[in-house]
Amino acid sequence: MPVGLLTLAGIERAAHAQLPPEIWDFIEGGSGAERTLTANREMFGRHALRPRTLVDVSACDPALTLLGAPLRLPLGIAPMAYHRLVDPEGETATARAAGRAGALLVAGMFASRTLEEIAAAATGPLWLQLYWLRERVVLAALVERAEAAGYGALVLTVDAPRIGRRLRDLRNGFAVPSAVRAVNLDQALTAASHRATAGRSGIAEHAREQFDPALSWTDLAWLRERTRLPLVLKGILTAEDARLAVEHGVDAVLVSNHGGRQLDGAMPALAALPEVVDAVPAELPVLFDGGVRSGTDLAIALALGARAVLVGRPALWGLATDGEAGVHRVLDLLREELEHTMALLGRPRLADLDRTVLAPWPCPAG
């Protein structure tokens, strides 16, 4: 293995070197001044670890069950659109890698492979992410297809009544190349995403046309009536919304600020995690995404109460560098680093990773 690929940072550099600049900016960029994008990473550095000694760590076990599905590690791949932007196989390669690693895959609504192709490639737990569209009949059809294909849960993104102001895409006049499509939707619904215009984003234009900004808590009942699948809300950052999610009968919540791509200045996901965990019953799973770049980051999020953690951009870095093998390498690195951290912490089980593991990072002298 090349020395540079021993960390996610090395895989990131390799992906950056080979992707076209406008594709890289679409994947990496945040909204506004990218304050939240940067803060997602910086928050992990505010936590120090409190290792315990003389503990038998000969076997560290990161396995768990999540919404009835067994996972070999508390890790999943977050929903992201258009994997074929970085690899010809796209989401099917990602699905195979996640299955090999024993990780969860959340397929995106704007996947560039069909739901059925992704399901056929998957050998592990598979969920489907949805945006709330103006045309509810389209949502209903996707839910029906997901159930028929064996998806295990629905993940409704609730922080995108409109797309954040992503300046990199605006500067690039970014549009999805015509060879890459959101194949699970009618072409007429996604036509705007392919229109390149100077100073405008095809993605933002498409969202403005198709996303329903009137979505409210009462609409969840409509979705519940159309599926038996568990419902996860993605984009929860406050205790208030966490409690409302419980009141409306959701099965899990995902603490996320959309990777810093929506409201710039929104609180870092890691900072929001404890208040959300404290606001919901202990049995309701709280998931987390936002800035995880190592197994130590993963351990910190678990210690703050996340049941499992999703990663987004790193999976696309792996896919860009080496297809299925690259995604598997990303997941395997995170597993290795998590088990290593658990051993050196003296916490060999996931249940041992609680807030006693953490302390504030000391302020620098002077």
From TrEMBL:
Name the Pfam families for this protein.
FMN_dh
Domain of life, source organism: Bacteria
Known InterPro entries for this protein? Aldolase_TIM, Alpha-hydoxy_acid_DH_FMN, FMN-dep_DH, FMN_HAD, FMN_hydac_DH_AS
Q: Which UniProt keywords apply?
A: Flavoprotein, FMN, Oxidoreductase
UniProt-annotated binding residues for FMN: 79-81, 129, 157, 234, 256, 258, 289-293, 312-313
PROSITE patterns, alphabetically?
FMN_HYDROXY_ACID_DH_1, FMN_HYDROXY_ACID_DH_2
Positions contributing to glyoxylate binding: Y131, R166, R261
**Where is the chain membrane-spanning?**
none
Outline the extent of the FMN hydroxy acid dehydrogenase domain: 1-363
Q: Does the keyword Transmembrane apply?
A: no
Q: Which GO terms describe its molecular function?
A: FMN binding; oxidoreductase activity, acting on CH-OH group of donors
Catalytic residues identified in the record = H258
Q: Does the keyword NAD apply?
A: no
**Which coenzyme or cofactor does it need?**
FMN
Which family does this protein fall into? Belongs to the FMN-dependent alpha-hydroxy acid dehydrogenase family.
Q: Which PANTHER family match?
A: 2-HYDROXYACID OXIDASE 1, S -2-HYDROXY-ACID OXIDASE-RELATED
Q: What is this protein called?
A: Alpha-hydroxy-acid oxidizing protein
Please name the source species: Kitasatospora xanthocidica
